[in-house]
């Protein structure tokens, strides 16, 4: 059994000092299928999302929280595609991230997806601080989730976040095992900052 227990080997090699949850954050696929996240910890993670900034403070994010072993979890997992479905069943929780893209009067909320992204980032950093790991996914059938949970018009399923405790890398399919141990790479700031230092 190979566990990712050496967090130091997964630490980001940053060019400037960052807070520990950001340095140690990575997106695992190997989760412990027996680990349970206590409800108060999930509440804390969601509270971090609640306090993210948003345009005009409209907070256009909504979440479906699906704990492993529930019908909601089975519905969300069943809507996943390809590799995501191969490993995400061992996560303790799947959170569907939803943007409210239209207000009650039918007006578009152009920043809703951006604001949702900020909320999910807050959620992810808080989860890391709690000793958990997150993995963001885009490979899923949004309409399947929409139908399963009866989502209203104006609510857009944008992503799914898996949350859990690190598990056995050897339990993953071979192609995913390779990804799990691949070096963590990022473009240099010189490619990302168009103007300024």
UniProtKB/TrEMBL annotation:
Matching CDD domains: TdsD-like
Molecular function GO labels: oxidoreductase activity
Domain Nitroreductase: 23-164
Pfam families in alphabetical order: Nitroreductase (PF00881)
Coiled coil residues, start to end: none
Signal peptide from the UniProt entry: none
Keywords annotated in UniProt: Oxidoreductase
Homology family: Belongs to the nitroreductase family.
Protein name: Nitroreductase
Organism from which the protein derives: Agromyces badenianii
